[in-house]
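DUF742 domain-containing protein (Antrihabitans stalagmiti), 124 aa
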Amino acid sequence: MADHSSDDSGTEPSLVRPYSLTSGRTRPAVELAIEALIQALPEAGNRHWELGDIEATIFALSKQSPSVAEIAARVGVPIGVARVLVADLVESGHVQILATLGEDSSVDERRELIERVLSGLHKI
């Protein structure tokens, strides 16, 4: 499991059980597709985050509008945990979900999504 606290002291990574990050919750409070792009809200940047807070890390990543899947990979948590944590940030007004594809999406929109996902995976 990945390091959930950013510490420059060179100590071993903190091993935190995923369910402890979500207080045992397994379902996000809002519907959240894994390909959904997440964007930090500028006015939410004034919050005082705790050092090593995983939500602070997710908020910082959200300034680049990554997908939920990319957030999970970069933070080093399972997709389900990332969905719950991102949904919490959506509900608290720190991040927003950008429009995702619907059933009426065109072939070009679907192709663009696949290309963005592949590009993000290559960056990781």
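The beta strands are 38-40, 95-97. Residues 5-14 have pLDDT under 50 and may be disordered. ok done for today
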